[in-house]
User: Which sequence fits this backbone?
């Protein structure tokens, strides 16, 4: 996959690149408005990660340019501004998703995968991992074609694991993914164990082994 | 006053007496001249008596009491008796005149005094009131303007000009002061917003870097624990930021969408979400829909914060009770003792116990939302439970 990361904060830009390149993706970067405009005009990308506040101009202008040129790239806006208006404007202009800074890279990765699925399969959205098959449209998961009865949170957890396979997911990252950051219950992440254990129990013994404990309190979904 | 009354009394009395005596003498002179013209002596008792006498005496001027049958009382008369020889005959001519009684004079003076003073008083009173009203009008108008002034208002305070130096100076100072306060308030609000905003990017960088570090294979378990706890701290900062921004937005009146929202339904959804994630018992009693006009997003925030607060302070995750009544929402969680400083409960960053790591803004936000829409929120400790109640239409209570 080929991504463009248009972000003027170089530290953040490089961190995103480092994270995404692990999956053998190609990441190009644009560090200001003009560079972003130039690159979206010249090249094709699968997904463009676009900061709204580029030093020299607005990411929304870049978005308009992308849509004007009928590029098929998916666009995820990242912004330090949490205002609903910005979000709506971005989505109205044709962005596929909107993330507010600060976000977890795993969350970004998961959103990128979702954008890719929607773009590629035109609605028939499935994720496959060995014997696991997930239909994201009907929100059901199968193991060897046998459907699993998962709660909403368990399903979200499974998708999050599969889309971030091979990466260490701390309790903090998982908690925020499942719950959002709307509520301050951060002094207690124990609820994560309960959901992961339930998920493991529902997956058959062999499949459950994909979910590994990392460093004692984190998790890693891995093809053993 | 009394002295002048006394003086006036004697003065008037003397004046009247002089006048009466003058009249007596002139009447007597006329009688004498009439007798000289050979007219017969005549009498008109008790006013005039002309009597022929044998010998002359000294002229007498005195007061005398004579019974007046018409009024059925004794009246004071001033009496002048002169003895004259007219045309060879000796006459005693007595003329009398009714004297105004001193009691009457006194009453007259008192009454007129009273009327004069009353009139003067009334006149002065109305004159003063009207004058003051005109004089103080700018002051009271400005006072009124100050009463309705709020530091949150967009526009500067409008004061009335006055041509009285002191009032003008006062207005100028008030204008300066209120403008300063308003500017400071705006700056403070802007500052909170800016700081929250500016913090987002560094936080994003820190978070991203930590995520990359824990994904390298070069760290051991102890280091991982350190990074995980850093993640938790960043999370705290994020939430703090988010909540501060939310508070500022509520204060700035940036939530302008008003919908008829069913609190009961919203609460039901929130509780369902919580139950999905946490193993807690939340007992929700909803009588019927409770529609309130407010921003739909703030309803979510309200429900969320109330439930999180109850959950956080519920020891051993026992039972949380939520009930939606006719006009109010009541949420309670169990507790061992009442909160020590209930008046501070809704303050920002007030935490009853040092132990928990909450942002300390949850209830402050709840209070702000209630204030925004004029809801009334109360806290009490009852039957070993912390009870929060929100009354949505306090005026109808």
Assistant:
């Amino acid at each position: 996959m080929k991504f463009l990361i248009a972000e003027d904060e170089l530290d953040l830009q490089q961190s995103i690149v480092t994270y995404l390149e692990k999956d053998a993706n190609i990441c190009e970067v644009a560090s200001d408005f003009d560079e972003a405009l130039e690159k979206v005009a010249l090249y094709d990308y699968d997904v463009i990660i676009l900061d709204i506040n580029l030093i020299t101009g607005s990411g929304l202008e870049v978005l308009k340019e992308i849509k004007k040129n009928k590029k098929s790239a998916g666009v995820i806006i990242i912004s330090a501004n949490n205002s609903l208006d910005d979000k709506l404007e971005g989505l109205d202009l044709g962005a596929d998703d909107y993330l507010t800074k600060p976000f977890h890279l795993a969350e970004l990765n998961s959103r990128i995968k979702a954008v890719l699925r929607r773009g590629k399969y035109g609605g028939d959205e499935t994720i496959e991992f060995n014997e696991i098959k997930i239909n994201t449209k009907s929100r059901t998961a199968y193991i060897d074609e046998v459907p699993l009865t998962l709660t909403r949170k368990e399903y979200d957890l499974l998708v999050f694991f599969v889309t971030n396979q091979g990466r260490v997911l701390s309790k903090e990252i998982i908690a925020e993914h499942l719950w959002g950051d709307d509520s301050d219950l951060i002094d207690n992440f124990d609820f994560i164990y309960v959901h992961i254990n339930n998920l493991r129990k529902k997956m058959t013994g062999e499949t459950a082994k994909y979910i590994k404990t990392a460093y004692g309190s984190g998790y890693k979904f891995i093809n053993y | 006053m009394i002295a002048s009354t006394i003086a006036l009394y004697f003065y008037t009395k003397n004046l009247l007496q002089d006048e009466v005596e003058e009249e007596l003498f002139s009447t007597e002179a006329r009688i004498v001249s009439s007798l000289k013209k050979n007219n017969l002596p005549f009498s008109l008792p008790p006013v005039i008596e002309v009597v022929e006498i044998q010998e002359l005496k000294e002229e007498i001027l005195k007061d005398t009491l004579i019974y007046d049958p018409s009024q059925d009382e004794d009246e004071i008369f001033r009496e002048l008796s002169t003895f004259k020889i007219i045309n060879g005959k000796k006459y005693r001519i007595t003329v009398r005149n009714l004297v105004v009684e001193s009691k009457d004079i006194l009453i007259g003076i008192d009454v007129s005094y009273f009327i004069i003073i009353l009139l003067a008083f009334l006149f002065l009173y109305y004159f003063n009131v009207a004058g003051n009203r005109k004089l103080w009008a700018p002051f009271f108008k400005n006072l009124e303007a100050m009463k309705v002034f709020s530091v949150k208002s967009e526009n500067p305070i409008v004061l009335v000009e006055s041509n009285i130096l002191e009032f003008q100076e006062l207005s100028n100072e008030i204008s300066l002061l209120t403008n300063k306060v308003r500017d400071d308030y705006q700056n403070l609000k802007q500052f909170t917003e800016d700081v929250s905003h500016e913090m987002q990017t560094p936080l994003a960088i820190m978070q991203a870097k930590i995520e990359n570090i824990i994904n390298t294979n070069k760290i051991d378990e102890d280091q991982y624990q350190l990074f995980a706890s850093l993640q938790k701290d960043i999370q705290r900062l994020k939430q703090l930021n988010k909540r501060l921004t939310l508070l500022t937005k509520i204060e700035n009146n940036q939530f302008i969408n008003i919908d008829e929202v069913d609190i009961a339904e919203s609460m039901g959804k929130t509780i369902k979400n919580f139950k999905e994630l946490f193993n807690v018992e939340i007992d929700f009693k909803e009588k019927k829909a409770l529609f309130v006009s407010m921003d739909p997003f703030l309803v979510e925030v309200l429900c969320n914060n109330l439930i999180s607060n109850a959950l956080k302070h519920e020891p051993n995750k026992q039972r949380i009770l939520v009930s939606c009544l006719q006009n109010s929402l009541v949420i309670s969680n169990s507790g061992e003792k009442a909160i020590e400083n209930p008046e501070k409960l809704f303050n920002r960053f007030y935490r009853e116990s040092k132990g928990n790591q909450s942002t300390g803004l949850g209830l402050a936000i709840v209070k702000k939302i209630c204030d925004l829409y004029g809801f009334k929120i109360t806290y009490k400790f009852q039957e070993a439970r912390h009870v929060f109640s929100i009354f949505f239409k306090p005026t109808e209570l």
Q: What stands out?
A: Chain B touches chain A through 47 residues (CB under 8 Å). Chain B has a mean pLDDT of 84. The radius of gyration of chain B is 50 Å.
